[in-house]
């Protein structure tokens, strides 16, 4: 197989540094990243949704677009779905349609925030009727997950309050625990419940699961099939996310990621576009945990999912770019010389330890990723290949411009 | 006139402290607060708009609701409008309709963010055709302002970028200055252009007018009819807003406020609901500036406007509560013993100076405000009076539940 | 006993609202607030320590000053000590000296950050020798606590790193757990270990116990005698502290507070001076938990401690002001109509529930506190009484101006 | 001259992309970075100063260390001094000593925060006597600058307040303007006054120059020799610094930088160690401005200064690493394809424009920098060369461990 420009020189340099290049490439080929069905449709802010020509309008078009992302990247065989946005009559048919595109259905995400009933919360709502409705919806999602062959129930709660005094923090916590206990008991063996936390929005005074600690406490109260989901945009400014990742891995409670990037709040931009070093540091913890017997099992089961809102940019191209950015971070993390790192850390050589990370981070891994893609039978540059493919123009012609929905998909 | 319970005792206490209670009451009666037409319609977050029964559906209903707020508070005779949300054929008719309700039209707000053309900005857009459109819209708003008798053109730009490299910061600045120069030249004498800034959202990498400094620089380049508008929710966490207020007053460039409160980002909650002490400190600067010959003229011309998004609470009641909160802050600021404050400051007595503010802040001004309302011929408790009035139930019956729009009014 | 001006009218108003005023006063008389020995000495920022005339120079002078605070407030009978700053040869003698002043020794705080050995951490340090030293110091502090009759070991760790890669997050977590397990096992029955967390500073990349969740996990791994200590200045901007307080109360893991206030980082200003409403909301949770059988035991055992750095203001006066601010928040929280609050919450009446809190918060409780003091045989205005007492001038004369130490007491 | 491994391949790749590699190398050779005398001595946090073996104890040792940094990097010929920390009797002697080491004295920094007089501020202090003292000190610094051949007076004010009400914002602004006007008038032609701003610390309620806008307004009131100095650690979380840089360049008011990095507050870590992409984006604006006739003059006069606090790491090595990080960011910024960038921006191709930056940023410029150093007669790896040189061990032996000062150099 003809090499990629620059790859041979890079491989030699890495080999000289002691890197097992073949092992790195093998890891990169094994990596799997899940894309979200809702990332292919129109979305926006509370101020405006700018409709994109050809944006997918239903789950079939979303799967078709996801298949394109998988075709050009080779590492995105699963697609997260959101109920009821992606609800269909015939789940078996959907599963087969996905399979025909080379895809599987990934995490199932109940929607617990877009019904008029949920104005004051879902599982934390003061009215037991509304909580019942939320529980029933989650139970329905477990059924759907079983039908489509998914083993992940991914829960995000918009529950919270907007004004001091509006509701009782502790009562709401008890309501949530009661609701989730029922859902947890109904999960089949092998299914995991991933519990997402968020600092704020759409609730603006308090959010019932405001940080990883609250999600962790709920998960430990429920049992071992419950874990925490880290959305990289759901933290206060300055938070050291890689530290939280390492902490949760050590506790066996890191279940998965929603990847995206932000500069301000939950901006939902392309992962790695604002702070690529932070993404590298997160993957540095994941790679270290994969290689540590105490954490390897948890680390290998982590679900890597993208969750972004492409407000002004083309959706499919943004998704491919996101996958590339994640691969870049992972590739660099795989190049970290862990032996030298440990030695410098144990010697208390602060700057030398820091430079071991820098040495990996400064490496231009584009030739390595290109070579991996070539060896996987893919175009070495997935963005360029997609742009050349004419797919964007084709769907723009065929689908036209959808009537824009509200800021978030499905909002009305 | 029969007194309000507790008022006489309070008045005596204040008099003993040296407060000219009659002057304070007179100031409270003179205070004017503008409510926004869009605060009476449905609004929400990007995730969901929860429609409120009876929420106003058009400018006529909005004015009717604003008139109710004015009826119960006595200090809200003007209403800001937003074009095109509030656009009508017959502006003279609208003006008369407002007058028939005891209202006038206040600030005119062009919409420069909700058209498909504005995906990459309005006055900063790389395409001159889009910039032209934005300028024409602002010129139209000047005409509307003249027709409805308004002297304030209130400008908020959502312009910004989402990704590093997306556009050229300096080129965008020049485009904005060019556009605003044309608009500025077309303003009649006596009209003011208020330029709003915002830290972020809906743009998530950079906002063209990101802070007061950028709005100030643009205003000084334009001329004396241009001033800065401070939206209390548009700052980074921790920002000392009262300091910015004092600084702009000193430079003669504080034009007005958009009042609301936030705990996290631009949450647009009821003003004073999250941090009432901050609101008091802002009014403390305004009262001080009103009493200082160097700043009195600027201070007295400041436009006090509410700009909130009532996502889960009743809109009219929220607006009345907002007015009450502003009055509370202003009343307490009027009670500050400025002579003692100055003496403590000049003596470097840190805690004594601080306690002079606390002494005013800790005062329960509810009897004072109740008395002011009574003397103005109003019910001493505007919220209770409104709840008793049956108006909310009446409009809920008559108007029903509007089909919810997107997160922000007018979004589609 | 002659009443305080305004008290009778206030008591009548409160009684009309259904408040049991005698019960409120009894609660205020029972409240206990611990002051820290280090708050009486000079302290400052990294840039400069401004020495204060008469600032206490040793534990005997600190206790003398604390006794003055207790004399004027009546609610501060215990004093936290910091080892080795307050180390003496004769602990029994110190205990008796304190008793002679009407004081007891409160929480014992080991110093794990000011030795040259601790450059890279204490219990998380890569070198086992340093960890050993840290453990020995904590064991020594347990002994001291037993000698001085204290039942609280209060732990703050400055442990963290300044650069990505500097050390291994998970290894450090294991080191901490190992060290604290040994210390925990050595605590006598009835002693509690309070584990403090902090967002950042003095470590600037990661802090080993960065948030309440990390402190909570460590505490649950240790056992029921370990609880979390909340320092109100140790959170990211925007954090809803009262929510964390309620969450920890519900889990039975809230052990105590370090009270102070901040606008930016860990500013260590006078509690309640920047955001008094937040302090009220924290006490609102504490009062609610005291009255709830599920949480009453935890709530009543919470240790209320002040931890501030008086950089530019007189230390004793600042401490008295801090006590007053805490009393104010507690008094207002006691006035909340919990029955009406619950009804409004359960009815989903957002603004009515919010106003129940506002009604209590807006109340001027100064006459109530003055009356409580009078009934306790104290001057109704402790700050004024202290200023009149001449104590500040006396110690300034007697002690002079100490040679300023570094930013934090004991730093060299 | 023998090439650096990887350089030839890189040069070819860059040439193919259209980069003028010789011009890039020339620019890198011309770059000048000033190091601060205080970065070579011990420093720390308010909690502890960890003394470093061999840390410089006076201006002569600091210059010696700075000379070593210049010897290994080739781009650091000037050293900023701080008065009175670096005060000597014989300024001409100091100048000659510096020259003998191949150095010149750079910016002169008055100290306006470490005298007991400055507890409540310097130029904003309520007492005119203190303000006089501050002005005299700045005038003295102008004289020193003239004696040592420096053309930059670099001003940072710790002025601010800790409590609401403590002092009058507007009065303080007037005092500052009055003081700086006198200083400005005394500056000789060709000297520049750089005015630094800071969000907070050591003042914790308000800082008199809290943001770039306030520094800008003061500078414009003073005249063209006054400009703004951007310290990269002095902003609220989330601030888009590169935008501010571009804005100030466009206004002709960007005077210089204090480079460092932070994750939380003013952490003063090694520049580029926490967020290297942000540093690249800042240099991207500087390079663009250098190449734009409208801004070239301002851009070329920008003073690049390091201002860091090396708390736990070796000082000289940290300084060399800082220089390398700045060179890396500058080198990558020089590789940006500005023609393609402009085309993508004008076409509104959001992701393509973003990728033009990424293409430069992802490039591994280490071989390029190594080659530049080789061509300058330097070791290609300055950190390794320094570590090999034995200088650190030598000064540790000769100088020993200094008695640690307070957190900030010179604090007592």
UniProtKB/TrEMBL annotation, chains A, B, C, D:
Keyword Hydrolase: no
An annotated GO BP: L-lyxose metabolic process
Keyword vocabulary terms for this entry: Isomerase, Manganese, Metal-binding
Gene3D superfamilies: Divalent-metal-dependent TIM barrel enzymes
One annotated GO molecular function: L-rhamnose isomerase activity
A Pfam match: AP_endonuc_2
Domain Xylose isomerase-like TIM barrel, chain residue ranges per copy: 89-267
Keyword Metal-binding applies: yes
Designated name of the protein: L-rhamnose isomerase / sugar isomerase
């Amino acid at each position: 197989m003809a090499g990629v420009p620059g790859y041979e020189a890079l491989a030699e340099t890495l080999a000289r540094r002691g890197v097992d290049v073949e092992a790195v490439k093998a890891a990169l080929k094994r990596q799997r990243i899940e894309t979200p069905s809702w990332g292919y449709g129109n979305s926006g802010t509370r101020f405006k949704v700018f409709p994109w020509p050809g944006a997918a309008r239903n789950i079939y078009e979303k799967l078709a677009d996801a298949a394109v992302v998988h075709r050009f990247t080779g590492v995105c065989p699963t697609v997260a779905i959101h109920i009821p946005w992606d609800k269909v009559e015939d789940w078996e048919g959907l599963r087969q349609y996905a399979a025909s595109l080379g895809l599987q259905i990934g995490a199932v995400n109940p929607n617990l925030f877009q019904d008029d009933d949920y104005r004051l919360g879902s599982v934390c709502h003061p009215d037991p009727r509304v909580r019942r409705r939320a529980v029933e919806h989650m139970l329905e999602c477990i059924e759907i997950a079983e039908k489509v062959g998914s083993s992940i129930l991914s829960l995000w709660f918009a529950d919270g309050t907007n004004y001091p005094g509006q509701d009782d923090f502790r009562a709401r916590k008890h309501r949530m625990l009661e609701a989730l206990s029922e859902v947890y008991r109904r999960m089949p063996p092998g299914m995991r419940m991933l519990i997402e936390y968020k600092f704020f929005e759409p609730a603006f005074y308090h959010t019932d699961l405001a940080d990883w600690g609250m999600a962790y406490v709920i998960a430990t109260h429920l049992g071992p099939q419950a874990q925490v989901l880290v959305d990289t945009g759901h933290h206060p400014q300055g938070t050291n996310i890689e530290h939280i990742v390492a902490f949760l891995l050590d506790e066996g409670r890191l279940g998965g990621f929603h990847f995206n990037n932000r500069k301000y709040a939950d901006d939902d931009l392309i992962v790695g576009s604002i702070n690529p070093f932070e993404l590298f540091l997160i993957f540095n913890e994941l790679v270290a945990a994969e290689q540590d017997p105490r954490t390897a099992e948890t680390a290998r089961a982590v679900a890597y999912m993208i969750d972004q809102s492409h407000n002004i940019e083309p959706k499919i191209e943004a998704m491919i770019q996101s996958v590339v950015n994640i691969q870049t971070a992972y590739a660099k993390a795989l190049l970290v010389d862990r032996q030298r790192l440990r030695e410098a850390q144990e010697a208390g050589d602060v700057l030398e330890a820091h430079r071991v990370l820098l040495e990996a981070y400064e490496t231009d891994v584009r030739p390595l990723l290109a070579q991996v893609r070539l060896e996987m039978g893919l175009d070495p540059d997935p963005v360029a290949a997609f742009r050349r493919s004419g797919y964007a123009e084709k769907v723009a012609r065929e689908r036209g411009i959808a009537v824009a929905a509200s800021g978030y998909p499905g909002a009305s």
